[in-house]
Structures are given as structure tokens and as C-alpha cells.
Amino acid sequence: MSDVFIFGAGKVGAGLARALRAAGDHVTLRPQRKGLPTRRIEADLVIVAVRDRDIADVAEALVSGALVGHRKVAVVHCAGALGPEALAAARGPNVAVAQMHPMISFASKERTPELARGQLHVDGDPAAVRAARALGKRLGMTPRTIPGLDRVAYHAAAGLVANGAAALAAGGVELLGKAGIDAATAAAMLGPLLRSVAENVERLGLPEALTGPVRRGDAAGVGKHLDTLARLSPRLLPIYIAAARTQLPLARELAEAPPSSFEEIEAQLGRRDPVER
């Protein structure tokens, strides 16, 4: 069991606090709006779970307030696009710092997402990396350290998939509404669909996780989709076209249809693309 102090009680901070308590750790969760404590922080691990722009200021305040450094402690932040140097001001003889970014979608302060099998990118001072890795393993996550990582590209990839999937689901709910399905039922239908896609990506990898008419080279099916979107939800048409074009290289690699089928799909997408008309 570890003593963990989490500064920031937003979605990530609150979610990690619940998960760590369930794993047997002693956790102190302090909202950022209350400010840092005035007394020394007695913890093995300090997690800074605030917005990216505030991390450096928190690191400086930890030192200026003499809140850390009196004992061995690891201080980590949860930002995906920032490395351990965001906490450089807190580094000292007794303070090791690191990035500890869970590649998990935290969408609610009240509900912790499933962390088991999740990925945790860790980088920084050896002692802080060890502490973060141990935390990840207690939560059933896979800690990774990727040398030379382009953190902005890494974070953009996570945002593209996580936030893009949520936006696509909203589009799906809208289109299902046009088909006669209420929003609550539509969300209940799409949630398991998204989970099955996630499982396919994790277990099968790509391009094998791809399904649907583009994979099959079904140009007629894609054409019907395009016609229906143009009629019922034209604002979703460019999104469908962009997604289908991203699918085409995967479908061509799988080669479950002749090349001419994929060429016809590409032609149909071009005819419907408002940018190309």
C-alpha cells in the first residue's frame, strides 16, 4: 500500500483516486480550487492532475511552500503532451519527477473508466518512473516508456481516436434519430458497437479490425450510404467521406475485393466530396 496525494479533483484526478483506493492505497484528493495545502505533504507519490498550463506553476509552488523535499517522494503529472520537464522546478535531492499519462478516456468526475489493460506512458527520473510503473501495475495497466517519443503527435493520436470516436458517435445518434430511433436507445446501441471495435483493434490489430462495405469493396453499398446521408444529414457527409477514404488503404491491404472495387469507391467519394466539386 502507498500513500498518494492527488492535486486536482477533476475527471482524471477523481478517477485515479477511486481506482487507487479500490486497489488498497491511502489517497488524499485535494481540489485545485482549494489551493495547495499549507503543511508538508506526507506521501510516497504526488500526482499533479491539473490542466497542462498549470503544471509548471504547481511544481514551483510545491517547492516554494516547502511542501515536498523533506522526504523521498515521486512527483508526476498526467499530461500527455508534456514531458517530465514540466515539473522541473520541483526536482531535488529527495524529489524525482516524471510524466505519467494514462491513455484512457476520463469523461466523468463520478465514474472511473475501466483501467485494466490500459496503457500508461511513463518517462522521467528513475525513482519517479519506478513509482509510476508500480502504480500502473496495481491498476492492471501496462506501463510503457517510449524513447524519443513525439509527445504532441502521441497526444494528438489519442485525441483523434478518443474524441473523434465520441464525435462520430454523436453523428451516429443524429443519423439513427433520422431513422426513427430515440437518442437514449441510439446511445445504448452504439456503445456496445464501439466496445466491439475497441476489442477488435486491441486483439486483431489493423487492418484486420476493419469491417463494413469499404473492406468488402461494396461500392453500391457505399453509394447508398452517401445518398442517404446527403438526404437526411448532409453535414455528416464530409465526415463519412473522410472516414471512408481513411479506410481504403486498409481495405486494399486486406485485398478481399478486386482493385477495381476500391477504385469505384474512391470515385464515388470524389463525386460526393464538396471540396472537389
Distance between the termini: 63 Å
Uncertain segments of ≥5 residues (pLDDT<50)? none
Secondary-structure-based class equals alpha/beta
Instruction: Report the sheet-strand fraction.
Output: 5-15%
In total, how many beta strands? 7
CATH first level of the largest domain: Alpha Beta
Overall residue-averaged pLDDT value: 97
Strand numbers in spatial order across the main sheet: 2-1-3-4-5-6-7
Number of helices: 9
Report the C-alpha radius of gyration, rounded.
Answer: 23 Å
Q: Structurally, how many domains make up the residues?
A: 2
- CATH architecture call of the largest domain: 3-Layer(aba) Sandwich
Sheet having the most strands? 7 strands, mixed
> What overall geometry do the principal axes of the alpha carbons give?
elongated
Secondary-structure element order, as H and E? EHEEHEEEHEHHHHHH
